[in-house]
Give the backbone structure.
Amino acid sequence: MGNSNYALQAKNLNIYYGEFRAVTDVSMVVERHKITALIGPSGCGKSTLLRSFNRMNDLVPGARVEGELLFQDQNLYSPFVDAVEVRRRIGMVFQKPNPFPKPIYENVAFGPKVQGIRKKSQLDDIVERSLRKAALWDEVKDKLKKSGLELSGGQQQRLCIARAIAVEPEVLLMDEPCSALDPIATLRIEELMRELQEQYTIVIVTHNMQQAARVSDYTAFMMVNDKRSGELVEFDMTEKIFTNPADTRTEDYVTGRFG
Amino acid sequence: MGGILFFCGFLSIFTTIGVVVILGNQSLHLFNREQCVQAGGATAEEVFCGHATIGEFLTGTEWVPDQLKFGVLPLVFSTAMTSLIAMFVAVPLGLGAAIYLSEYATPSIRKTLKPILEVLAGIPTVVYGYFALTFMSPVLRDVLGQDTVRTFNMASAGLVMGIMILPLMASMSEDALSAVPRSLREGSAGLGATKLETTIRVVVPAAISGIIAALIISISRAVGETMIVAIAAGASPNFTFVPFDYAETMTGHVVRISGGENPYDSVGYNSIFAIAFLLFFITLALNIVGRYLVTRFREVYE
Amino acid sequence: MPPSSRVTFERELKNLRDDVLMLSIMVDNAIQQSTIALKQQNVDLARQIMAEDKKINDLRYKIEDDAYTLIARQQPIARDLRGIIAAIHIAIELERIGDYAAGNATLAIELANEPLLKPLIDIPKMADISRDMLRTAINAYIHWDIESAQQTIQCDTQVDVLDERVYHELLDLMLQDRSKVARATFLLWVSHNMERIADRITNICERVIYMVTGQVHGTDGIVQGVDGFRLADD
């Protein structure tokens, strides 16, 4: 654990896809044990920014990052950092629930197994703990051998959250985790995020402003500039953004005047 | 228009049924009718007659129709042997190629390699046959010794057959692997799995039904393959388990006998229908098993 | 499913309710203490009440701020929305009641220099009735109890009657003895403040009725019924 009080700090982060600069000059701090929301109109680069936080963009051919991304005083984009290790420490939950076509148990045990944990008792323990944390244990404890795909959408997403926290990451990135879910399942995930906040730092991308307002402590509003590249317009406490934003563009967006 | 299309569909089904009926009917002649041969070859006067039974057909280890010995096992075993050798070549290499193409190759490499692979699949099998006879067999004989390896042998036929099937196996497996949604790879990567771990633990299991389908079709292809074995594996039945020995396969035998001057309803004529019918059953069984395995291992990911 | 899938929201609503309850206790205390300060001519106590009023104001603004944030962040609708709107209005009413109590504390300081005109009887009685009303009103708010809100509104008449009696009594005193005019006027203000406190409590009850029924104009006539001579209710 570093002694810094931030979980992640972006310094002049620029993200390119080939020649195209998708995100321009983002500087922001993600505070520990807080929920930070990235909002903005479609195509504003919020998902791209999120995916740069655990070097997920490395998987996209031609993607390139300039600037610094500090995680415990270390630049994640320094050449000495292993992207695989980064993803172990900074987990991710995706837009569409993507459980592996495997039993529920195997889904959760996947990460720990990849990390070399083989002992059955230890795995059992991790699986139960993770499923409990994800508020799914009671619903699935009798069918751990059933495929993860037999669960409902909301349950699948909670399974994906359990899977992500099974590797004990420090930060959890969530890329529109509720966009494929119904309102009730959405609220359950939101409540879950509030509970997880005690142990993890969460960054969430959402196209749903109300969701950002409900769950986050900090909100970053992004927009494309005249070169069609995403920029950070305003970053502040969520309360401030939703009651009295400083930038008129933010106000126009959160009041539904455009975007 | 609808009528024409119906006719097309009907015709293909009708043809299939027709083939099965004729095949079955003809092959029954071997068992229903008294078979007569002239002992001591065509010039001899003496004529032997006897009945073939299905039990003898399926369990006998000698196939000499001229002596009324109708044990089909030597032919079945050599077919199994050559197919097995072919699968030992085609499955690991094909799967490896498929994984490389789907997971590791850059889009431009994939765009170049896949068509080449498919061209490979278009080479006439007779070419492969002579490749086996004039290249693979001499190489095997040089490497393993002239005494161990015969000029006509199952090993070289099997190896080359494996090479022939490889593009099919690779191409079909690649299709199955590519169909695995990106989100699963991302999910795995997001948990800190390396590319290799992701491929082995997530992508291949998710594509397993497609890969099994590729495997089954490859086996069927190997079992049914004719020209390579006819040319390179040998031209007389031999009940042996030594891969470097000659042995005629079911298809090889059928094509050789049917090329000769066996008159209608002669012993040879009837015997090849029985063999073909058995072959038909074997491939049918493989397909059924394949279908079962595909549904059994299907990991639906949507 | 758990009882509620909006645990955070429920908790924040409860916090808001608790704050309103806390504010009402502080205000209730201020009414009680200001009456004691008057009775005992206790300047220190009066000063203390005035200092406490700042805390009341602070809590009122906190409630308002929290309510606005809650509206902006949780998108409340239907009864949740009405509850929050009611909380804002009730907090404003409570703060004004606190102001009246603080006003009475100021008057207590003015009245502390000379002996009391007469033993205070009706004014403490008004205070007692008002405090009862306040408690039942806040109970009605907490429990969404429309009946007890309506009953509380009825009690306002008692305070109005007492106010009128005090008014006439003090008027007589002033007519008899000019030296008593200043002290009588202060007491008149005290009585008026008490009457206003009761009015504010009926406003709280109206908010409770709105909160439960969604009707903004539930109690026309009841409030204005008694005191024809006073200017329009504010």
The beta strands of chain B are 35-38, 47-50, 63-64, 69-70. The two ends of chain B are 36 Å apart (CA to CA). Chain B has a mean pLDDT of 85.
